[in-house]
Design a protein that fits this description.
binds iron/sulfur cluster, globular, 400 residues, six-stranded parallel beta sheet, alpha/beta, Rossmann fold, 14 strands
């Protein structure tokens, strides 16, 4: 990242820190934090059992469930669904899981227009190069208004002034215009309640509502998103919101428990009144079954990267794909392999533990990284300089 981008990112992070400091320390947030830690621990330990219950709940709710062992499996399922709908344009919401399977790159190769509906993500999409997000909920926090104005003017061939409302209106009009021909929407989910078979999605812009109105709504989520009940899912997204934005709630919280339907005419069941006629959920494993359990406690708030000294110094080169910072590095070992983990910044981490101190679910990322370094060394991935010291110790009983 450029130094000017890092500076803008740090300023944005400081705003989040200031906004969230009092709310994060309130007694009610502390109670919520304890509760969510228990929910996540229980959910990961009982994942198979909850998955069994979820299958039944989805069946009852008329939600189609597909399992994807790998990114490739998920993409194949999506391809088949898009073929069925002759989709040429799809409406997409922010999702780390969709970033993980590289959906946009895959569909762009097939000439399918994937339109980001979140403003920050859309700006990054219009940027075209060097457009990796820097925060899970504030993806474009590193771009200042003058840079964003240039991106929008160049890519949309318009002439907006560097004024936030003007930019927002131009991007919104362009997105809505493109989405006129989209009959498929695709999103992730923040949490999935197994008892009710409901998917919870939080957002501020109202874009998920647009996506859920398309004929087919595809939802891709990791198996780690399953929690026992809707109350648990609500607790989780509330805590995520507090730590991601410094607010108690987002403007919108969509709870999707099935396709759109009505039985208002002689009790005859009709689908597709306003919303999707079909809801398909793709649950993705992609290494999660093998992952260190605590890595899967993550609720995606991004507070770890806001406080990480390495991330604040180097930005999103510390992390893997859309999974930023130390926890992202750890996940890369399970999603990809030891080499990817090493290249994602396994040795960049200072092991200071600030991520753990600032993580609402207390993921011991520094300890996980330390342990992974030992395992990585065993399979030959360590910095060259460390190798020289290791060889000197074996040969000379001294590091020199
Ligand atoms: S590791 Fe913790 S702080 Fe970082 S995104 Fe996940 S829950 Fe939030």
């Amino acid at each position: 990242m450029k130094s000017s981008e890092l500076e803008t990112m740090r300023k944005s992070f400081n705003t989040v820190k200031r906004r969230s400091s009092s709310i994060k320390d309130s007694p009610s947030t502390k109670r919520l934090t304890e509760r969510v830690r228990e929910i996540k621990k229980y959910s990961i330990e009982h994942n198979e059992e909850l998955f069994g219950q979820l299958k039944e709940s989805f069946k009852r709710n008329d939600i189609e469930l597909k399992l994807a062992e790998t990114s490739g499996d998920a993409l194949r399922i999506i391809d088949d669904l898009l073929d069925e709908y002759d989709a040429t344009t799809i409406a997409k919401a922010k999702s780390n899981t969709l970033g993980e399977i590289k959906l946009k790159e895959h569909l762009n190769d097939k000439d399918i227009d994937v339109v980001e509906t979140d403003l920050g993500d859309r700006i990054l999409q219009l940027k075209r190069t060097d457009n990796k997000p820097v925060h899970p909920t504030g993806p474009a926090s590193h771009l200042n208004i003058s840079k964003i104005t240039d991106i929008v003017n160049d890519s949309l061939d318009v002439n907006v002034n560097p004024e936030a409302r003007e930019i927002m209106e131009v991007v919104r009009a362009d997105v809505l215009n493109r989405l006129k021909s989209a009959n498929v929407g695709i999103s992730g989910a923040n949490a999935i309640a197994s008892e009710e078979g409901s998917l919870v999605m939080v957002h501020n812009e109202g874009n998920i509502s647009i996506i859920s109105l398309k004929d087919l709504h595809i939802i891709v989520a990791g198996i780690d998103k399953i929690v026992p009940s809707l109350e648990d899912a609500m607790s989780l997204v509330k805590l995520e919101t507090i730590f991601a934005t410094g607010n108690f709630v987002t403007s919108y919280m969509n709870v999707i428990s099935g396709p759109s339907k009505t039985a208002d005419i002689e009790k005859k069941l009709l689908k597709n009144m306003y919303g999707a006629e079909r809801v398909v959920v793709i649950l993705l494993d992609n290494g999660r079954s093998e992952a260190t359990a605590e890595c899967l406690y993550c609720i995606g708030c991004g507070n770890c990267v806001v406080h990480c000294p390495v991330y604040n110094a180097v930005g999103n080169e510390f992390g893997f794909n859309n999974y930023l910072g130390g926890r992202g590095v750890a996940m890369s070992k399970f999603i990809e392999d030891d080499e990817t983990c090493y290249n994602s910044g396994l040795y960049m981490c200072t092991l200071c533990g600030l991520c753990t101190l600032n993580c609402p679910v207390a993921i011991p990322t520094n300890e996980i990284i330390e342990n992974m370094r030992k395992l990585s060394t065993d399979v030959g991935f360590y910095p060259k300089a460390h190798g020289v010291i290791k060889d000197n110790v074996s040969k000379n009983d001294s590091p020199y």
